[in-house]
Amino acid sequence: MSLQDLINGEIGVSLAKSLAKALPEKAGFKLAHSVARIISHRKNTYMVRCTRANQWVLSGKQLSGEELDQRVKDVFDHTAYCLFDLYHNIDEPKTLLDKMTISPKLGEILTSRKDCGEGTIYLTPHLSNFDLAGRAITYSGHHLLVLSYPNPNKGYQMQNKLRKEYAIEVMPMSIESLRLGKQRLQEGKAIITGLDRPLEESKYHPKFFGFPSMVPVTYVKLALQTQSPIVVVACIGNENGRYTAEASDLIYLDHYNDPVQEMERNAEKVLKQAEVFISAHANQWSMFYPVWPWALDEMPQ
Predict the structure, then answer these.
(1) Does the pTM of the predicted model rise above 0.70?
(2) In the chain, what are the domains?
């Protein structure tokens, strides 16, 4: 079993949740920091190599091997902090709400889109405590159907189960869930899904940070079919241990005669907005899968 499978598997998720609930904050954050340091030092593991490759491309191929080592350490440190913070307070909706500030722009969009009669697709990059942000938005009274990664392993199934326990409606991406998502959008409701978790097989390769990528584009078809605008929502970790949920402007997609161009160019239009948030907070981008697989062989060692 790989390190990544262990951490993201049922055992890893269960252990993380149990420890986070049992430990006081000071001891928990200290343990999270120690675990992050141990993982980030294992440079030959697939998880660390993917993080290095993603951060290298994100930097415009500018970071040296030594700078990548530090960036990877910062990424795992922030991710571990976020996971402990989430699981430690997972049974305390009020505490989670207190930790999250919904920006005035996002608040206005959520409120104005709620009863406008038009569907809305919210897309989120894996920035900071994105799961906590989703819960805070739900607890604030905004009901969104979450379309999660398809064919989840037992660890992801457990995470989805935890979301459902706290009134979050979540379904793995499938023909059935996409059909339901389309129906919700046609009814003037909202859905939310990730935009940067790469797919192993895809015939579309939209440019992301200037290079063809493996990120999904399914939301493009949904948006065009239902004439729904897209909003990129990003969770940003603040220095005081709190978080802010930010938003892009409404993004309306364009029609193209060429179907491949239609999918890729529209995805790039959305990804440009995500790039703004990720670039400004690169050490909070917890993407541990290869967005650009070729970079695994080309990055500095």
Answers:
(1) yes
(2) 3-91+288-298 (no CATH), 93-284 (3.40.1010.10)
